[in-house]
Design a protein that fits this description.
Helices cover 63% and strands 14% of the residues. The protein has nine helices and four strands, in the order ααβαβαβααβααα. The chain has helices at 2-29, 34-56, 69-72, 95-110, 122-131, 133-140, 149-158, 161-164, 167-173; strands spanning 63-67, 82-88, 115-121, 143-147. It has a four-stranded mixed β-sheet, sandwiched between helices. Helix 4 (95-110) links the parallel strand 2 and strand 3 (115-121). The N and C termini lie far apart (49 Å).
């Protein structure tokens, strides 16, 4: 039963993240360097996101899961958004992929993750990066979590700083 499986996944993610946060809080209170802790929190969240992705969107070659922004840099403060880009090979996903993506996003929300996400193909990434310096920066700070390496490489190449903004325009916009 997919509903029971979904509830089990939500419970697993909640309990595991609560345990990780408790551990990190203890380390913070004992004086561990905050930079180390935000990297450790990003790693813990990444493992849970990858587990959920693997359960709900397994083995597709037409999609990539990408961390962007601070999460892409491998940094995640408590109560920060988990910024994800679901990168599609096509302009719109087929029905099965659309349902899997919806289930994935819903699962993360239900498990209590603060999620900032977008679902785009390479062309829409280019358009968004050209339209807003913050989006361009977020894509520059991205890293592939799972999925199609070639698709991710295409997006990185197409949205490279020198392709979407001149250095002076980018500097002025930032």
């Amino acid at each position: 039963d997919s509903t029971a499986t979904g509830r089990k996944l939500v419970t697993l993610l909640k309990k595991t993240m609560a345990g990780a946060d408790q551990c990190l809080r203890g380390k913070f209170e004992s004086g561990v360097d905050v930079n180390q802790l935000v990297r450790a929190r990003a790693w813990a969240v990444e493992q849970l996101v990858l587990h959920a992705w693997g359960c709900l969107v397994p083995g597709r070659d037409d999609v990539a899961l990408v961390a962007v922004g601070g999460f892409g840099r491998g940094e995640l403060h408590p109560h920060s958004d988990i910024d994800l880009l679901i990168l599609l090979a096509e302009s719109s996903p087929d029905e099965g992929l659309r349902e899997a993506i919806e289930a994935f996003v819903t699962l993360l929300w239900d498990a209590g993750f603060y999620l900032g996400h977008s679902v785009r193909n390479v062309e829409t990434c280019i358009a968004e990066a050209q339209g807003e310096a913050a989006t361009a920066t977020s894509l520059m700070e991205s890293r592939l979590l799972s999925g199609q390496q070639g698709l991710y490489a295409d997006m990185r190449h197409a949205t490279a700083a020198d392709r979407v903004w001149s250095p002076s325009e980018y500097f002025d916009a930032k």
